[in-house]
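[Q] Does anyone have a clean structure-token version of this?
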Amino acid sequence: MPDQMYKIPFSKSEIEFNLPAQMTAEVAVSQPVPPLADPVQAIRDALEHPVGTDPLIRLAHPGDSVCIVFTDITRASPDHLLVRALLSELEKAGVHDEDITLLCGIGMHRASTPAEKVTKLGADIAARYRVIDNEPQNPSALVDLGVTPGGVPVSAHRAAVEADLLIATGIVEPHQYAGYSGGGKTVAVGAAGEALIAHTHGPAFIDNPATRLGRIEGNPFREAINEAARRAGLRFILNVVLDDEYRILRVAAGDPLLAFQELVRFAKTVYEVPISHQFDIAIGGVGFPKDANIYQASRAPSYLFFAPIPVVRPGGIFIIPARCEEGAGEGVGEQRFLAAMRDAPDVQFILEDARKNGYPPGQQRAFVMAKVLEQSEVIMVGTECPDLICDCKMTPAATMQEALEYAAKKLGPASRVLIVPHALHTLPVL
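[A] Here you go.
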């Protein structure tokens, strides 16, 4: 229906739009699953009945040093609930406050601010415990854990590796490289050294056809981070599956691999959505917190492109509403991404240079976006930094109407449109 009103996330609100008269649309949304009525109790139950291992109250002992790696502000993991529940179990086990470190798994993102730590953990926890960030470029903060049989150099933050008990939180959702996020990823990327992140995010891994959304088995990226987390000593996870409103649908705790696999099986039933064909245009929603900068918001077109089969035909267009109030992003990785996109004469140069010379962590997003832009155009709508959008080889548009009129003129008025309101929580499958 040409006059139908559609809604898509934009920052902490929504954008409403109509399609031009001759365009037809299909909407892809994750399966409606009721959120847990009592998520706090569900978390307690998961901790009391972990998958494949003893409960924390038996794994932890008085005098043990414990490190909990939690996700940074770019991830919607409800760590204020998860970490609190973990700390409660550790207290029951007799672990002292001073023996606990809460490590923010920033990976190569910028350091977390005091306010963000409070947001993630709660003011009381942030004040009561030692809370630190990963330092991927600080050799003295890292422990070298050798090289995997596949040639991946493994290093991780000293607080994680040297702890008697290493625990991680996380979300299990579609992930462009890992198939699904969660499990060992919070440690193996979030708490990793730069060399490990560089290798796993390098062109050899990302160019591998088995490194795809939704794929766990035989995925070299997933296999590498599983091994890295094992070497770091990860013994226990507390992970969740969320809906589009970030409400908890399922919780699992326990063995880093077995608990993760249990949640993946459930997540597939929620996130993987059948579609009928490839489309001319895909409109992908991001919303807060992922649309705060270009680096994170660009995940939407790349997720839709790296679905098992790209949802947009070659020559098609992705339209992504994203405020991007932080510009490209302030972290080392984000700035490397911007520099690579801005300084290259075209996307072919980015691809050829990466395959020939490799790149440092963060710059993999430039490589990924170059693969998207090689076949498609990306329009970013409503951004506060249109000049930076242009620097990143994408097209800015002030409004959805402007973007759709541009797409209609370029691809034809009768273009077929796929609308994915929550592009990072939906995996369209042909």
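[Q] Thanks! Anything notable?
[A] The longest helix spans residues 79-92.
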